[in-house]
Fold DUF3014 domain-containing protein.
Amino acid sequence: MRRMPSPSNDPLRPPPPRRIGWMVAVLLILALLALGYAERDRLSTWIEAWTGRAGVSPLTASTPQASNSAPAVASSRPSHIASAPLQLPASTAMLPALGDSDAFVRRELGGLLGKPGLAWLVPHRLIVHFVATVDNLARPMVPTQVWPVHPVPGTLRVTGQGDILAIAPDNAQRYTPYIRILTAIDPQHAARLYFQLYPLCEQAWRELGHPHSAFNDRFLAVLASLLQAPEPQGAVMLRQPKVLYTYADPALQASPAGQKILMRMGLENERAVKAWLRQFRQALLTQMQPAASASSPGR
């Protein structure tokens, strides 16, 4: 019988927070409540200032059923998008259980990606791998074993030697076929499919250890992070302290994993991906509406 990974070594789960950090946060919250600073927005500001983490506000998101998904509603308030919470369109699709969803998801993606795109997908646990990868794109690294797609063939092409290393200009060619697959996708179609499958994404998000937040919040935040990726001009210098390469520029090396991936693609490819992501993000936002509770009298 296959041994199930424990939460501490499961690559699909984010690294657990340090216990000391959470103890400080709890003590801080209690102190703020005692001082009368229980108003939510001010409390979030204080928590973020002390811990470096945004305060988590209550969310309402329906848990999808095994075969008949209820409408998924997520309270979402990214500061770069809108001042009021956003509500996702209700999904009316008859969805399978998350554990049995691979065939259904591949069938739906077939009309979006075509045969070359389907061959790029990892065939198992697609929704879970997608959700875990989205989460990790804003973290320091994305383990390849949780990707929903196969890695780009080959290895990073480098020019130079010793302490003078840079990403080779022809390294961008490795990504070209996959950039073409992505940019050929209709952003409006992709947005509709995201909303259709969202109840499954929300269930996977909760099962991966996030019971008090909505996946859509994380998704929008990660899209914003990717669009803010630096665009290095000229040669991108590297270092090789051990086996893996790192960016020589400390600022680039400190970037989230998703931004590092974009920068490895080459400037032209990075801009092409960003252009598509902007259209996709806009397609998402135009179909989201301010939550009714945000404008209710007396709220």
Confidence is low (pLDDT under 50) at residues 17-84, 293-299. Residues 119 and 208 are 26 Å apart (CA to CA). The first helix runs from residue 19 to 35. The beta strands are 86-87, 158-161, 164-167, 237-239, 246-247, 289-290.
